[in-house]
Amino acid sequence: MKVALFIPCYIDLIYPKVGIATLELLERLGVEVTVPLQQTCCGQPMANEGDQKHSVKTETQFCENFNDLDFDYIVGPAGSCVKHVKFHMDAIPQTETVKEIRTKTIELVEFLHDVLKIEDFPWADFQHTVAIHNSCSSIRGLHVASRFEWQEPYFNKTEDLLKKVAGVDVKTIDRPEECCGFGGTFCVTDEAVSSKMGQDKVADYTRHEVEYVVSPDMSCLMHQEGIAKREKSGLKFVHIAQVLNNGPF
C-alpha cells in the first residue's frame, strides 16, 4: 500500500505531534508513505465563506502537490479538510487529475477502519478514561459514525479503533454527536454562540469524569481545549493518531 500523507496547515503549524504520530502509525502498519513537502492549506477556510476566488490558488497548489497518481490513497488526519477535498474542492477546473485526487483522498480513521481493517494496535497502551468527539464533518460528511438525527443503527468507527487499544475506557457523554461550536469560520463570525456550544461540551465531559477527549479532528479539539483552559479544567485533548501510535503526546 502506497499513500501520500496530507497534513493540514493548522496541524503542521500548531500540532506537529499529530502529523508525526500519523506518519509513524502508518509506517508501523507497513504502509509506504510519501510526504509532499510543499503542501499548505487545502482551501477550506475560503471556501467556507464562499470565497471561490481565493480558493483557487490553494486548491491548485494542493493538486500540484498530490498529482502523482501512483499513490493508492491520500490520507489526512482531519475530517473537515478531507471533506472539503472530497466534496467541495470545486473552485478549480475539474480535470481528470483533479477528480482522481479527490477520489483518492481519505480520512485517517476511514483508512484504518475500512481499507486496512486493522484489528490490533499491540504497541499502544492508554490507561485513561476518554470521551470521543467526532466532528460534524466526520459524522455528517464522511459518515465515520451514525447520524443520530437520521435514527440510523449505531456505529462509530473512531470508537471501534480506540477499543482495540489496551487500557482505554470509553465513556459515553450525554450529547456525543452535538457540535462543539468550532465550525471553522463560524467561531469567528458567531463568537458568543460558538463559545457557549464549546462550554456545553466541556461541561458534558466534566459531568462524566472524563480524563481525555479523543478526536480525529484537531481543529475541534483546539476550540474545546481553549475553552477548557479558560475554565481551568483538567481535561486533556489528543488526536486519535497519538493514542493509536502510543505518542508522541
Automatic annotation (TrEMBL):
Where is the chain membrane-spanning?
none
Q: Name one GO molecular function term.
A: oxidoreductase activity
Q: Which residues form the Cysteine-rich domain?
A: 3-84, 130-223
User: Which Gene Ontology CC terms are recorded?
Assistant: cytosol
Q: What is this protein called?
A: (Fe-S)-binding protein
Q: Which organism is it from?
A: Epilithonimonas hispanica
Q: What is the lineage of its organism?
A: Bacteria, Pseudomonadati, Bacteroidota, Flavobacteriia, Flavobacteriales
